[in-house]
Amino acid sequence: MTEDARGVGRRRRRSTKISERLEAARRRNLDQLAEQRRREQEVEGALAEFVEAGEDIAAAERTAEEKITALQRKIESVRVDLGMVTATSHDRQAQAALRIHEIGGRTVEQVSDLLEIGSVKETRRILAAARAGHDPADEARFVQF
């Protein structure tokens, strides 16, 4: 009875071959776990890189939009300046055409030919605008000489 009790509580000794196989299996398991952790770290690194690149893209887009907006403001300012210069120059052209007509004693047809305006009707319109003073609404009707 005492022998049975001692044998039950005692563990049986494994053979060397089984112990070696078990140890090899444990090593393979540890290697697999290590490889799995390495892959997970690679994935985490790739995720971080992806997000960082996305943030870089968003920042570049914001910077580009700010620059584009600033350039559009500059372009609009240049257009406004051009419009003012053009309006003033058209007014000067109209006044000069009127002087040619009135002081030079030229007919409307002669002024049109001399200034290469293109049509007598357009010359009349320019002369009328010069007599009336510069009207920005008439701006589009002036031709470039």
Sequence-ordered SSE layout with sheet pairings:
Layout (H helix, E strand, L loop, with lengths): L1 H8 L6 H87 L5 H8 L4 H13 L13
Helix pairs in contact: 2-4, 3-4
Overall description:
This protein has 145 residues and is mostly helical. Helices cover 80% and strands 0% of the residues. It is rod-shaped. Mean pLDDT is 88; it is low at 135-143.
| Structural class estimated from helices and strands | mainly alpha
- Average pLDDT rating: 88
Tell me the strand percentage band: under 5%
Structure summary, number of beta strands: 0
Q: What is the H-and-E element order?
A: HHHH
Low-confidence stretches: 135-143
Radius of gyration: 47 Å
The count of helical stretches stands at 4
Sheet of most strands: none
- Measured between the Cα atoms of the first and last residue, the distance is 130 Å
